[in-house]
Amino acid sequence: MNQSKLESAIEVFFNYASGFLIAYLTYAHIVMPNLGLKDSPFLVTMLFTIVSIIRTFFWRRFFNAGLHKVTNKLVTGIFR
After folding, report:
1. Do the domain assignments include residue 79?
2. Long-range Cβ contact pairs of 48-52 (< 8 A, separation 24 or more)
3. What average pLDDT does range 16-28 have in this prediction?
């Protein structure tokens, strides 16, 4: 993997930003409507862990697929 520090920072930003949004939507649309799920901290923790692993996997695949090069060109064009 040949990501620069900037590309790694961009990947982390997208991962965390999407994590916040996905966690909010998961809680609002899956946990809250299911009262039984809300009463089980273990199941809620497992749900969020699985969602986080899947989200991180897809962002990692996205940036490792060479698309980080496009991001690099875009960012270097903005900051030059």
Report:
1. no
2. 48/23, 51/22, 51/23, 51/26, 52/19
3. 95
How far apart are alpha carbons 26 and 29 in whole angstroms? Answer: 5
* Chain segment 30-76, per-residue pLDDT in tens: 988 887 887 889 999 999 999 999 999 999 988 887 776 777 777 77
Q: How far apart, in whole angstroms, are the C-alpha atoms of residue 57 and residue 60?
A: 5
pTM of the model: 0.73
Structure tokens, 12: 């982390």
Is there a domain that residue 62 lies in?
yes
CA distance 52 to 79: 31
Q: What is the C-alpha to C-alpha distance for residues 18 and 20, in angstroms, rounded to an integer?
A: 5
Please tell me the distance from the alpha carbon of residue 60 to that of residue 52, in angstroms, as a whole number.
Answer: 12
Q: What's the pLDDT score for residue 75?
A: 76
If one counts the domains in the chain, the total is 1
